[in-house]
Amino acid sequence: MNNIPASSTWSFLTSVKITLIFIVGGIIILTIFFSILVSSFLQFQISMGYQMKQTVSQIINLIQNQDNFLLTTHMNADGDAFASVLAIAYLMENLKKKYQIIIHDQQVDGKYDFLWGIKTIRSYASELKSTFRAAIVLDVPSLKRVGDPAILMPARENCVKIDHHPIEEDFAAYNYVDTEASSTSQLIYDIIDLAGIPLTKPLSELIFAGIMYDTGRFSFSNTHQRDFEIAAKLLAHGAEPHKISGALFFNNSFHSMKTLGYALANMKVLLDGKLSVIFIPLEIMETNNHAEIEELANYSVAIQGVEVGIFVREVQSHYYKISFRSKGNVNVNSIAKVFGGGGHMHAAGARYAGRYTDLEEKIVSEVQKFI
């Protein structure tokens, strides 16, 4: 049996020790690096949370120190818009503040009649004067989307914007904007909570309705754990999901349901099945309650294989309202911006003036760039 020289054994052991030192050292360095990374992330999250809480506190202070408020939201107001503006009105009532809710739309859809305070909403009229000392603008990223009530806005230093859309215009001194929030109503919950306003059945129904509307009955990709946590608290204070869901989504006229059938029967599928387009011409739109057929925007992506859905309705002669939907990785907000619109990654809107054939051709061209 041959003996291994002692020098070779020593050299081998030394190499092993050096290798182990490098491995252990590398692990220590990586551990320190990831610890710093996690710590920095947590500090950033804490900092962001503190900044948002500070912003909410500043908004509450403004409300407490001012009076005679303009409350408004975007044109073609939807469930989240109405719910959030009325929830702020509820806050105003509790704080004994003077306010008016004025919107661009000349009519409020009847399906929102169950919401507290809905009858206090006024439509803009030219005889209205700008006498407001402060304003709170909800669920809208720019004043151009507010429409006519923007004329009534007071000085910027007394304006508040509360929104969950990407920022398009800096028109307010106080901005509570969180693009990760499912809805503006979710943000209103935070304000109500920090203001110490007790939850009641009417208030809980408002906030629940707004969150339910913008999350598509808690089914869209913008639905997060926070929404369910808030929803649980709202249910505990009287919100009734079946009642709210029934009013918002299952309260359509027979005529509008027939229109849904027409639209689906005439739907197109393009770009090898990745794009669907639903179009309703003016002569059919004129006989319908527009709010009752908005759900077609979501139907546009309810087809297997479709990545982008488009719902186009002619609201005036050669003037179109467009809804964009995505259920994959396509950012329809980017597509909507090409048409002068905007919104979220998976849901956006725009308007277009011209011939429908040109519009459809442009839509196909733009969507093709993303899929």
Please give a structural write-up.
This protein is an alpha/beta fold and 371 residues long. Helices cover 44% and strands 17% of the residues. It is built from eleven helices and twelve strands. A hairpin with a 4-residue loop joins strand 7 and strand 8.
Concise summary:
By secondary structure, this protein is α/β, with parallel strands linked by helices.
Helix content: 40-55%
Compressed to H and E, one letter per element, the order equals HEHEEEEEHHHHHEEHHEEHEEH
Could you please say which CATH topology of the largest domain applies here?
inorganic pyrophosphatase (n-terminal core)
User: Taking Cα atoms only, what radius of gyration do you get, to the nearest Å?
Assistant: 27 Å
Shape: globular
Average pLDDT figure: 90
Known CATH architecture of the largest domain: Alpha-Beta Complex
Strand content: 15-25%
* Superfamily (CATH H level) name of the largest domain: inorganic pyrophosphatase (n-terminal core)
Number of domains: 2
Structural class: alpha/beta
Count the beta strands. Answer: 12
Low-confidence stretches: 40-48
